[in-house]
Amino acid sequence: MTNTPETIERRKHERCDAPSDAVVFLRTSGPDFTIVGKIVDISTSGLAFLYTAASKQKDESRQLDIILAGPRFSLGKVPFKTISDVEVAMECPVGFMAPRRRGVQFGDLTDNQRLELAYFIQCCTTDETEIWQVTPYSTRKAQRQ
Description:
CATH class: Mainly Beta
CATH superfamily: predicted glycosyltransferase like domains
Number of domains: 1
Shape: globular
Radius of gyration: 16 Å
CATH topology: Thrombin, subunit H
Mean pLDDT: 76
Helix content: 10-25%
Largest sheet: 6 strands, antiparallel, barrel
Structural class: alpha+beta
Order of helices and strands: EEEEEEEHHH
CATH architecture: Beta Barrel
């Protein structure tokens, strides 16, 4: 992102592009998910994702799950707060809703969540051939026991 007088970069951590099969599920206080979206980019402090909705959604979710279908990665119950939620400007066929982009900041993560997130970020910035050489912390810990 270019820093101009209108757009000052406020992120503390560099974002990396997410793999095409990375999705996010926002949790409500009940058993259901409120929003499912495609992760666009991610860092150790937050992520952005695209989703479809008629309007800005209520901000009742407080936890999210990150899922990567390919290597079967998941990181659940990640605390977050919404930083931005805007409609993406693009032409849509009549009757279709324009996608929205939501940016979220992670809350207080457990040590394990931080390690798993670092693993995920390493996966999304590493060649696919190298992904399988890295084992998530929780798996390594279980193998030692």
